[in-house]
Design a protein that fits this description.
- The complex is a heterodimer of chains A (119) and B (114).
- In chain A, 0% of the residues lie in helices and 47% in strands.
- Chain A is an all-beta fold.
- In chain A, the strands form two sheets. In chain A, strands 2, 4, 5, 6, 9, 10 and 11 form a seven-stranded mixed β-sheet that branches. A four-stranded antiparallel β-sheet of chain A has the order 1-3-8-7, with no helix packed on it.
- In chain A, a hairpin with a 5-residue loop joins strand 4 and strand 5 (43-50).
- The radius of gyration of chain A is 14 Å and the shape is globular.
- In chain B, strand 5 and strand 6 (44-50) form a beta hairpin.
- The chains are: A mainly beta (119), B mainly beta (114).
- The interface between A and B is medium-sized, with 26 and 23 residues.
Chain lengths: 119, 114
């Protein structure tokens, strides 16, 4: 059972370009979470999605950032017109549907992250 | 909403010293608690977790943590650290039984001197 897969591992974009980060959750997981880790800082929650639904996007910047988790395929975090301040590590986590495996079914498993560098 | 405080931003120890990293949370209900470790340039790895039952939780690599409900704390301990424990440690919390997102502390950088 493969873990949470994120790609690419490293992404370099010029200012003004678009960045697309992909996350394939663990098999059987229907909840996806995106976090951002800025240099010298902890992980900050960005968005929580279920299939075809955004549950909580309270941590997403109001502009340029969007996320989706379609019925088929990976979850995508999209950053338009990137700026230097977007340079960070972006981590995805997934969990199973709450209740399907008891309390412990809600444990989140993390991917290896995508390190975005904006030059 | 829940929040997590890690009071020590940077801890420096010599090998074989004992370690205790503080973690306090605030939330009005029952919680699940986690400690993650991040080695330089690496992703997050789960050290240990508390869902219910025995408040003393043992994790990987000789780490343990104790959930003290009355103090809203979940401190991480290791009796004897090694140079390879040099990493950043994050405490995290979420409402129990919920699929809601984790809330992380700001992290503690541990440096172990050989």
């Amino acid at each position: 059972n493969a873990g949470v897969m994120q790609n690419p591992r490293h992404l370099v974009r010029r200012r003004g370009q678009e960045a697309r980060l992909r996350c394939s959750p663990m098999k059987g997981h229907s909840h996806v979470y995106w976090y951002r880790q800025l240099p010298e800082e902890g992980l900050k929650f960005m968005v929580y999605l279920q299939k075809e639904n955004i549950i909580d996007e309270s941590g997403m910047p109001k502009e340029r950032f969007s996320a989706e988790f379609p019925k088929e395929g990976p979850s995508i975090l999209r950053i338009q017109q990137v700026v230097r301040g977007d340079s960070a590590a972006y981590f995805c986590a997934s969990s199973a549907m709450a209740g399907s495996r008891g309390v412990e079914g809600t444990e989140a498993f993390f991917g290896q992250g995508t390190r975005l560098t904006v030059v | 909403a829940q929040s997590v405080s890690q009071h020590n931003h940077h801890v420096i120890l010599s090998e074989a010293a004992s370690l205790e990293l503080g973690c306090n949370y605030s939330y009005g209900g029952t919680v699940n608690l986690f400690w993650y470790v991040q080695y330089p340039g690496q992703h997050l790895q789960l050290l240990l977790k508390y869902f219910s039952g025995d408040p003393l939780v043992k994790g990987i690599k000789g780490f343990e943590a104790e959930f003290i409900k009355s103090k809203f704390s979940f401190n991480l301990r290791k009796p004897s650290v090694q140079w390879s424990d040099t990493a950043e440690y994050f405490c995290a919390v979420k409402p129990s039984g919920s699929a809601r997102q984790l809330t992380f502390g700001s992290g503690t950088q541990l440096t172990v001197l050989p």
